[in-house]
Amino acid sequence: MHKKNQSADEVISCRNINKIYQTGDVVTQVLFDVSFSIKKGEFVAITGPSGSGKSTIMHIIGALDSPSSGSYSLDGQDVSQLSDDELADIRKNKIGFVFQSFNLLKRTSVLRNVILPLVYAEVPAGERHQLAAKALRAAGLDEDRWQHLSNQLSGGQMQRVAIARALVNNPAIILADEPTGNLDTKTGEIVLETFRRLNKEEGHTIVLITHEADVAAHADRIIYIKDGRLADNL
Amino acid sequence: MMIKDLYQETISAVTANKARSGLTILGIVIGIASVIALIAVGQGTQDSIKSSIQSIGSNLIMIMPGAQRSGGVSSGMGSAQSLTLDDVTAIGKEISGIKAVAPEISKRYQVVYGSSNTNTSVVGTDVSYQQIRSLEIEAGVFLSAEDINASRKVAVIGPTVRDDLFGEDADPIGKTIKVNNINFKVVGMTKSKGGTGTSTQDDQITVPYTVAQKYFTNNKYVSTISVSAESEDDLSLVQEQITALLLDRHGKTEDEADFRIMNQADIVSAASSIAGTLTMLLAAIAGISLIVGGIGIMNMMLTNVTERTREIGLRKAIGAKKNDISNQFLAESITLTFLGGLIGIALGWAIAWGISQFASLSTNVSWSSIFLAFGVSAAIGIIFGYYPARRAAKLNPIDALRYE
């Protein structure tokens, strides 16, 4: 029903996505016919004012939610009509999340936090430490912090632990939701540079969700959302 | 999620909030410990009732008069005078498979020695009574055939009577006591048999039945006939024969029997069933505290789910499935009840030991009560942990991540 023009290097492909919420008799449509694609190895920012629907887009491409209509394929797999547990598998294998409020496990070591996705992916215990160490190095966290508890770190360090956690499963995309929102400008810059480096040197596909124009400016391409519609591909 | 990982997650979650985990466990500990301790008290009581009934004699059959009836009025069991000394003689002669038979003419009297006096049970009986009731002599001698035949006013007293009249450790042999204003010479004292309540033979004076008949009742009737069967297997057979004989002698049919006959095995099983009911009652009361402990678990787990909503959201975002989440919370509640169960069993055992040491109540911690307590605590973990675990699993990851 949709034209199949997805090229091989497209990692995200959204076609005519609509999202409608219904609470009782009140029907709210937050996304209107949104179509876009992101290629492998791209660094893209999705931006727009609050209430524009960018969070809803983030939830859909993050496989946390399904579109009401339209199709979404991630890494060549259609994920628009999957069950909760199937979506969990997609998140486990293909997506690395970085959140505004870090969402690290409290009173838990840095290493254990980074290993957590490997636990759900049932990676053998012997390989976990090595993978976590690799991800922590890539995220740029000094090795002497690895045994610290997550609540003993600064904001910037916490966000780098979160980035390492997102990297550890070698996902198809890294989805960062306002990653600098809880950081001061300087620390935010360092975090954004980390994304830049991961994109350039390691070839990770990065999708950055932000409402700040100067944060979005760090990306190669900006997808602008306004009132639930794609405004412009800059 | 692998079992080892589940275990590790559970340990870290339980130890993350030690005070709260500890208090939750305490609820289960108290429940399990009280179940174990109270069942131990109940079973100990059951055992001691059994052994004290067994101590009143060996393979004993007792025949008592039935209720006296005049018109429609019943005066209650044992009030009738229907058993006679001739019945005793007949049983001794005609029934096979019995070791001994003895009449008992018992009444309660005030017994006086000097300025001391006590109210006790006075039993007039025969020589064979000693064998039937397994009485052992501590000092002096038991009644002899000559005492009976010559109607000598001699008495064998129980240790409690000695304590009451002469004082502990006093030698009562040869002393003269007054029973119903008649002087009796103490010739012997029985060994203590223990036991409690009014049925104890430690608080009893035994005299020749001929004397009791002559001075106390002045008729041919007896209060009880005690028979000792040769073996436990013969009990019911002997009982049937005696019943048939007495019915025949009294000229009654089975429906109008003017006596009641029971054997020791029946008494033991009746008393055991009463004690068993008591044990169940105690266990049920303790079980209530176990349920309260379970509700404590559920309360803590619900609080936990609410507090850790964001963590649940994160776990779901990085790929945890519904079952991963519910297993994790279920494992936590089962671990808490399991720990509580272990500690509770140890504590219950200690309490049971303490009761037997300091409260002179015998206790008996049985394996079945331990398995029961363990099973119940595991079941509580599953039942009361299930709802919070499902609630955690059902959380929508988007809402959970946003939860403040």
Plain-language structure description:
The complex is a heterodimer of chains A (234) and B (404). Chain A is of the alpha/beta class and 234 residues long. Chain A has a single domain (42-68, 83-233), classed as P-loop containing nucleotide triphosphate hydrolases (Rossmann fold), CATH 3.40.50. Chain A has seven helices and ten strands. In chain A, helix 3 crosses helix 4, helix 4 packs across helix 5 and helix 5 (155-167) runs parallel beside helix 6 (185-202). The longest helix of chain A is centred in the C-terminal third of the chain and has 18 residues, at 185-202. The two termini of chain A are 28 Å apart. With 404 residues, chain B is of the alpha+beta class. Chain B folds into two domains: 3-52 and 270-402, no CATH class; 83-257, no CATH class. Chain B has 13 helices and twelve strands. A six-stranded mixed beta barrel of chain B has the order 4-5-10-7-9-8. In chain B, strands 2-3 form a two-stranded antiparallel sheet. In chain B, a hairpin with a 2-residue loop joins strand 8 (176-179) and strand 9 (182-190). Chain B starts with a helix and ends with a helix. The model of chain B has no long low-confidence stretch (mean pLDDT 87). Classes of the chains: A alpha/beta (234), B alpha+beta (404). Chain A binds chain B through residues 59, 62, 64-65, 84-85, 88-89, 91-93, 97, 99, 101, 103, 105-108, 116-117, 119-122, 125, 165, and chain B through 1-2, 4-5, 9, 12, 16, 310-311, 313-322, 324, 397-398, 401.
